Amino acid sequence: MKIKTLQDLENVRKAGIKKLFPDKPRIAVGLATCGIAAGGQDVYEALETALKKKGVNAFLTKTGCFGICNEEPLVNIAMPGKPLVILHKVQKEDAESIAEKVAKGKLPEEKALCKIEEWDHITSEKPFFYGKGYENIPLWNEIPYFKPQKKVVLRDAGIINPEDIEEYIAVGGYSAVYKALTKMTPDEVVEEVKKSGLRGRGGAGFPTGLKWEFTKKEKSDVKYVICNADEGDPGAYMNRNEMESDPHMVIEGMIIGAYAIGASEGFIYVRAEYPLAIERLKLAIKQAKEYGLLGEHIFGTEFSFDIRIATGAGAFVCGEETALIASIEGKPGRPRPRPPFPAQKGLWEKPTNINNVETWCNIAPIIKKGGEWFSRIGIERNTGTKVFSLVGKVNKVGLVEVPLGTTINEIVCHIGGCGIKSKEIKAVQTGGPSGGCIPRNLFDTPIDYDHLKEVGSIMGSGGLVVMDEDTCMVDTAKYFLSFTVDESCGKCVPCREGLKRMYDILEKITDGRGTEEDLGILDELAHTIKATSLCGLGQTAPNPVITTIKYFKDEYMEHIKNKVCPARVCRALIDYFIVPDKCKGCTICAKNCPVGAIDGGPGLIHIIDQSKCIACGTCMDVCPFDAVVKLSGEKIDTPDKPIPVKKGR
Amino acid sequence: MDKEKLQEIIDKYDTESGKLLGILEDIQRTEGYLPKDSLIYVSKHLNVPLSKLYSLATFYSFFNLQPVGKHIITVCMGTACHVKGAPHILETIEELLGISPGETTSNGKFMLTTSDKQFTVNTARCFGACSMAPVIRVDGKIYGYNTPKKVAEILKKYGWRGK
């Protein structure tokens, strides 16, 4: 059906509510990419079979990701009038017992992670009330992982079915479009976004309202809006989840933006590595068209707008807006100098407004609740929330949405639960290859655009990669440079040649051939590249090196002066030894050594020939007795030749 | 790739924006690589110089010009995977399959195929499945929390018979 009036929207909303609150149990399996990889699809199929087999009258459906990734697969169950309960680490083997309990109106409480009694979808008129009960299950926002979080962008993720537009409308979806198109002028929309203080969530933090105003002011017969979904920062996957779990919120934001600036066509540029996001966006666009929310005369107004998908093909630099435009035009994605800015000359030389996925996700709530409401979240000049992907060497990994201005410590230690196996956390890396490594002693830094810049990093798109004592900071800097060297488009010399030279020097240092002079050259190169590169990629690529030298100079010096890698990562600086007291002479290591560097035999203490060893670590991986140790700058006493293992061990 | 199928792919795109890359991606997805014949066909039908298609195919890492093995193993090289040992996982896979860098790669991109054409190994920047790092993908299916031991188990599922 085509939605033309508020009444039409209301009718669809009621139909959607019946799906969210059916008069029977609703079981939703978290099926975003991460949920599927954790086995969610198998769980879904097993539940389907089990419910059918036992003749249970329940509504089985799918949902997106609720954000607590290492508890996946997640399944949520809502019995009529009872709280929504989130089950964690559900396996397909659990399906039968879940079905059995649901049939009796009970819950598999042993699998419950938390419950939701009331949920604010923000865009709905009032919060949804599920019910009270289940005293033994904690409320979702009582558990440490969620306690400091505030879900604005992830308002629907893991609750509604992302493949059903009616459920999105049920939680107030597209009512912001209705409001904007029928009750506000384009100027008022821009004004509201300006008032909210929203800044671009792609990383640079340019005020969104201002950007819209620039494009709006341009006179042109055709204008475009683009959603930048080329989430290229390694270690960041917020946008993937936003698109997979709630694709309509991206579309709704784009419709409002297009109305405000006067665009008639929109593109979502998604990286090819996200097939599920592409699939769900395509479906969402199709549904929005069927319901008349995209296409001609939306809500019966004069405004018409359509969205298409354009896919990226694996080039990090295409996240830069002028490169992205070139890519949509079918060219290699090489940036060009600005000005002219895309607002003046963008796609096919027409005024174009580009925003990141998450920026678009914030638009509907801003229009619905007002810019004033939004500006009260977060801190001054950094309003709203930000979704971060908290990953790496931290206990709890997943997607975390917090008000801007939350400290690193709060996120890494309170939400993330600190280091794995009580390892000491050393740093957190923000902003991907353009960002920097922030050391532990600066963890009271609030995460927002300005404070991160002060400590030499950037917000970036929201990746937070935690590093611990086993992470070598020189290796980390080298890793990021290898990334940017590969991804440099080759157009400008500082980035193309300079980064390569920086990489060579870092390789020299990690190989144990570095000199103190190298640090000076690195510094000089870094600052030259920053100052003279054409686009953001080159201008920020030295950041990982600059910050690691600034905060972890001692680690560089260890590599240079003592030829020691304190984290025991850099292969040229580490040696493997077999501890004689622990070796049981089982021969497994010798059999697996790819270069035949291990001498021994059944019942003999094995010895590694250091001149042959390539430090691949295979012996350590295969030893069943943990007898192999990895050292840097140290040695242990080993016999000269294999001798029998002492009896009685 | 047969002409009908190619024409079908080309006809799907009704606007210039996103067209060229879209067509190449569809071919890449269907064939696993960009066959020369297909590129020549696209070049003729869209009146785009073949050199331009070659330029795109070599600029974007999603494309490759060489036929691939039966199973494609992609090792994620994202930051979370890196700090959790992705380089070691990649080495393990190379070692298990008996291939080493430089063996079959020809266009400067990282892409290795075993001599029996059963497996092709390549790397990706980031799958966005960082929570389960280190991650690999085999024929589109994602496997997380890898260890050298687990990798061998995964390879066995795809017909690898051991060294």
CATH top level of the largest domain in chain A is: Alpha Beta
- Strand pairing plus helix content of chain B: what structural class? alpha+beta
Distance between the termini of chain B: 34 Å
In CATH terms, what is the fold-level topology of the largest domain in chain A? Rossmann fold
Instruction: Supply the CATH architecture of the largest domain in chain A.
Output: 3-Layer(aba) Sandwich
Q: How big a fraction of the residues of chain A is strand?
A: 5-15%
Counted beta strands of chain A: 22
Write down the oligomeric state.
Answer: heterodimer
The low-pLDDT segments of chain A are none
Q: What percent of residues of chain A adopt helix (DSSP H or I)? A: 25-40%
Strand order of the largest sheet of chain A: 2-1-3-4-5
Number of helices of chain A: 24
Helix content of chain B: 40-55%
Q: In the CATH classification, which architecture of the largest domain in chain B applies?
A: 3-Layer(aba) Sandwich
Structurally, the number of domains of chain B stands at 2
Strands of the largest sheet of chain B, in order across it? 2-3-1-4-5
Number of strands of chain B: 5
